[in-house]
Design a protein that fits this description.
By secondary structure, the chain is mostly helical. The chain contains 12 helices and no strands. Keywords: Nitrate assimilation.
């Protein structure tokens, strides 16, 4: 039986995903130069509020300081990992298979996706794919890794990082209530209907991923 992809997101959500991709990216000169356009687009669709803290943060320090902060919080800290499969598969053999499947999803879209040296599950890349690549497939990817998004959100909230509201807005756009603890995320993972087991990757249209996955222990330590 054919599996239906979710409908392409409305324009408001596509603006959200495009802006979130910028806000969560490494703040090089190109990213910082896009902030005024991002701010303008968000204001037009009434989504500026979740981004105000991160925009203020990015404008509050010199470029090199902002870059060093980003590396410390997102590249070196497992609590804020921006690679979606790291939360569910950690550094396991299965993760390699899942990454290959995500890359194939990009190929299947018919678009030439430039990974630019990044792994295909890098959140800003998935968000850009959902905004301007193949929106329906991009939303399906975000839904499939909703648990990863929620765990990232919880980590950002706990550590009071300015990006927390941005990730929360992305989660809200996918529908369904957000869990409040890591245990609640695991419970949702284990509580999906059994008939979802074995579906092809990245066709999930429900608010949370398929069952059977165990969260990788990546929330401890730096």
């Amino acid at each position: 039986m054919a599996i239906k992809l979710p409908a392409p997101p409305p324009n408001r959500d596509r603006v959200l995903y495009a802006a979130a991709a910028v806000a969560l990216s490494y703040p090089d000169d190109e990213v910082l130069a896009r902030l005024p356009l991002v701010e303008e687009a968000l204001a037009e669709v009434g989504l500026l509020a979740p981004f105000e803290a991160v925009l203020t943060h990015l404008r509050s320090m010199p470029v090199m300081e902002a870059q060093a902060w980003h590396v410390q919080e997102f590249d070196l800290s497992r609590r804020h990992a921006l690679h979606l499969t790291y939360w569910t598969d950690g550094d396991t053999r299965r993760r390699g298979e899942v990454l290959a499947a995500i890359k194939q999803t990009y190929r299947d879209s018919g678009l030439l996706v430039d990974l630019d040296g990044e792994l295909p599950d890098y959140l800003p890349m998935v968000l850009e794919f959902a905004a301007n690549g193949a929106p329906a497939l991009g939303v399906a990817l975000l839904n499939t890794y909703r648990a990863s998004l929620e765990l990232l959100r919880l980590g950002l909230v706990k550590d009071k990082l300015p990006h927390a509201d941005v990730v929360a807005a992305v989660c809200e756009s996918l529908g369904g209530p957000s869990p409040q603890t890591r245990a609640e995320v695991q419970e949702l993972l284990g509580g999906r209907p059994s008939e979802l087991v074995g579906l092809e990757p990245f066709i999930n249209t429900t608010p949370f991923p398929v069952p059977g996955q165990q969260l990788a222990d990546v929330t401890q330590g730096g």
